[in-house]
Amino acid sequence: MSEDQFMGNLYQRFPVTIEKGVGSHVWDVDGKEYIDCMGGYGVALVGHKNQRVNDAIKEQIDKIITVHSSLYNKTREEFLKTLIGLAPKGLTQVHLNNSGAEAIEAAMKFARKFTGKKGMVAMKGSYHGKSFGALSLTFNPKYRKPFAPLVEKVSFASYGDIESLRSVIDEDTAFVILEPIQGESGIIVAPEGFLQEVRKLCDEKGIVLIFDEIQAGLGRTGRLWACDHWNTAPDILCLAKGIAGGVPMGATLVRPDILASINKGEHSSTFGGNPISCAAGTAALKAITEDGLIENSDKMGKIFREGLEKLKEKHSMIREVRGKGLMIGIEMKFEVKDILMGLIKKGVLMLYSGRNILRILPPLVISEDDVTKVLHALDSVLTEEEEKRNVQG
Questions:
Q1: Do the annotations mark residue 92 as ligand-binding?
Q2: Cβ contacts of 334 within 8 Å, gap of 6 or more
Q3: d(CA 182, CA 226)
Q4: 270 labeled binding residue
Q5: 214 a known binding residue?
Q6: Would the annotation count 213 as a binding residue?
């Protein structure tokens, strides 16, 4: 494909050229239709061509496209009021940026400045981005090793193990960061009680607790915030992906006393909070909270997982099904490359984590009919794979 001539070998590419999309469906340049379970790696949260988002963008374009945060803007103000009105308890301040990695970078700086400490603790299996700071908190050696040395004073605790976390904390620990549900490592759900234990430990030690809900937040798991499943709120919350309906945006929600420790000029973003993203963001947040998307995520997620559990009983290739809402992982006993290509042929786009985990992150507008079609397609592909392996064996 012609893009490869210019973009280098930076992405795992699939042989599909997407032309348009509506809801949970996309079409390639040849007119072939696909059910989109990739969702732009979770970005297409409110669905492709969401009418609220499209209308908001069109209206804002006719007003003004860029207003730096050194000036005021009513579109930005409306977005901030909407976002803070939905935020977890105590998070009443926001830094607006452009991506998940930027949201993480801001959180790192805010926590270290506020505490005056340098130590940072992340989780084994974590993924927080690929900029230098965010990469330093990302566990997988394949991402880290080529760019070492990274930011110093980072330790990793075993996810879900409070004693492991306790063992790597010391007097210089500024913050603990975790995903309530780990995405990149294969949809690993926090064990019951773990988030509450981490919250208690951070309170005892005067440590800032950061939740990365870049993938898991905003209704993805069947609750507005993934941490709501455990009735636990962080001191800083990082958001991005679908927050603006597909337009680039990131946000770092912060306790007011933490953000108050940052002086003018110590952190900023040229494009952060631009009116186009803010208009789209307000529309996306209204779609999520007013159009039944959270409820649909919960309902469709349960139907998906029930169907996948039945497939697990039928196909020995499936090792485990896990997740919440429409954030689902299917761990296989073999590599999933051929399965992904088989699904593409049957009109389904799906993600992967590592070599052997299928990852499902569809738009939250996906219908039961589409879920059923995806399950049938996966059933068919797994049957074909098993037959092929039996012949080869």
A1: no
A2: 317, 356, 385
A3: 11
A4: yes
A5: yes
A6: yes
User: Which pLDDT tens digit goes with each residue over 165-178?
Assistant: 999 999 999 999 99
192 — pLDDT class (breaks 50, 70, 90):
very high
| DSSP-derived 3-state class of residue 326 | coil
Mean pLDDT of the chain: 97
Q: How far apart are CA 45 and CA 366, in angstroms?
A: 10
Q: Which DSSP string do the residues of 49-117 spell out, in sequence order?
A: T-HHHHHHHHHHHTT-S---TTS--HHHHHHHHHHHHHSPTT--EEEEESSHHHHHHHHHHHHHHHH--
pLDDT in tens, 5-59: 898 998 889 999 999 999 999 999 999 999 999 999 999 999 999 999 999 999 9
In angstroms, the CA 376 to CA 378 distance is: 5
Residue 5 among known ligand-binding residues: no
Ligand-binding annotation for 277, yes or no, is no
Burial of 121 (0-12, 13-18, 19+ CB in 10 A): buried
Tell me: is residue 268 an annotated ligand-binding position: no
For the chain, domains (ranges, CATH) are 2-49+292-391 (3.90.1150.10), 51-291 (3.40.640.10)
> Residues with Cβ < 8 Å from 89, sequence gap 6 or more?
233
* Closest residue by Cα to residue 87 from 244, 306, 235: 235
Is 101 assigned a ligand-binding role in the annotation? yes
